Amino acid sequence: MDIQRTNRTIQQMTLDIQLLTLLTSKDNHKFSRYDAFLWLIGHILEGCSNDDQKRTCFTQQFCSNITELSETWHWSRPTTQKFINELIDAGWLQRKRFGNSFAFMLTVSAQAYIK
User: Fold this and answer.
1) pLDDT digit string (tens) for 97-107?
2) Facing residues of 95 across strands?
3) What DSSP letter does each residue of 21-59 carry, written as one string?
4) Most-buried pick from 1, 32, 48, 51 (CB within 10 A)?
5) In terms of Cα–Cα distance, which of 29, 102, 42, 37 is closest to 68?
6) How large is the average pLDDT for residues 39-45?
C-alpha cells in the first residue's frame, strides 16, 4: 500500500500546554523558530518582571536586547535580529527602543489571535 503525501493547511488548531511542552526544545538546546516565537509571545503576555529595575516596561511588553535573546535561544546575533525583523515585517511584533534594550509588543492584529 502506497501512501501519498499531500500538503494540508490547518486554519486553526488549539493545543494544550502538555503537547506544547512536549514539542518545545529543552533548555540547553538551540531553540527552533517555533520555540523562539512561543517563548517571546509568552514573555510579552507576562510583561516585564517586577524585579527588573533597569528597565521601565508596561503590561503586554517584554524588554530585552538582541544579545540576551541570542544567548537565551542559543542563536547568533544576526539570526536573532533577522527573526525579530521578520516578525515585525509579518505584522506580529512591534519594537520600541529603550536605551540599549527594546520593548517588544504584539501588534493589534496579532492580539486578535491570542485568547
Assistant:
1) 988 899 999 98
2) 104
3) HHHSPPTTSPPPHHHHHHHHHHHHHH-S-TT--S----T
4) 48
5) 102
6) 89
